[in-house]
Amino acid sequence: MEPISHFFYSDRLKLQSWDYGQDGKPPLVLVHGGLDHARSWDWMARSLREHYHVYALDLRGHGNSAWAPGAIYSVAEHILDLSALLDIINSFPIRLMGHSLGGSVVLHYAGLYPDRVCRAVSIEGFIVPRERRLQGSPTERLLYWIEAVRDVEKRRSKCYPNLDAAMARMKEANPRLSEEVARHLTLHGTNWESDGSLVWKFDHYMRVVAPHGFDIEDCVEIFGNINCPTLLVCGLESYLPVPESDPRMKAIRNCRLVKVSNAGHWVHHDQLEILLRETTEFFQD
């Protein structure tokens, strides 16, 4: 069964959401990661909808949602958009699950609105910027952001001559993907150009990390407000470190960490059955 497409507005932007159905069941909202799209949740959503009314959204600058001219795609803006969708659903306290950037957004929302969230799952959500300057002084961070934006202004979106070429790039990013999954993700993650080539849907300005929003001390304070049970999931073969010693994890009072073997950053693609088992048990506990 295909999810139903809806649009909603946040911050004057027209954003896409997907409704997987099951009216009358408690809602569960899924938030994808950076340079991704909501339909990457399809396999999770089709199973979870047995117990929940599942929704997923395309974050601004992703999927079928509008790009934000002049925006910096900060975590704060994504939290704003999630809050708009949740207000439309209007069923609190609610269950949330996010991956990567989406996992960070979910934890921030749960810390900002602790009484509105009853369960939260964050998959690879402790985003660690690779560039040291992003954890540097305010001067260093702002200068880095200006330089990065000017660099992106000069970039042109790469086109792929056919679907197979775009799929090959998808599998290059995650070699564990099957042909079926890679094809699905590519079809929903690209637009066709007039010459038959394909281009990724996401806004390349998403690649520029905002000069604020990754301050560890700020996250510790916000995550310390989370009062719902929280499940943290990490892939043991991810480029992100296991967050056991991360002060952000220590700030969450009621959390459990699941470490998944033979999984990289995209745990929901690499070990779907394990993640479904863990999340289903967690949400129903």
For the record, give the distance between the C-alpha atoms at the N and C termini, rounded to a whole number. 27 Å
Number of beta strands: 10
Relative strand content: 15-25%
Compute the average pLDDT: 94
Q: The biggest beta sheet, please?
A: 8 strands, mixed
Q: Order the strands across the largest sheet as they lie in space.
A: 1-2-4-3-5-6-9-10
Detail the poorly predicted runs: none
Helix content: 25-40%
> Which descriptor suits the 3D outline?
globular
Structural class by helix and strand composition: alpha/beta
- Number of helical segments? 10
How are helices and strands ordered from N to C? Answer: EEEHEHEHEHHHEEHEHEHH
Radius of gyration over C-alpha positions, nearest whole angstrom: 18 Å
Describe this structure in words.
The protein has 285 residues and is of the alpha/beta class. 36% of the residues lie in helices and 20% in strands. The strands form two sheets. An eight-stranded mixed β-sheet has the order 1-2-4-3-5-6-9-10, sandwiched between helices. Helix 2 (75-89) packs across helix 3 and helix 5 (163-173) packs across helix 6. The longest helix has 16 residues, at 138-153. The radius of gyration is 18 Å and the shape is globular.
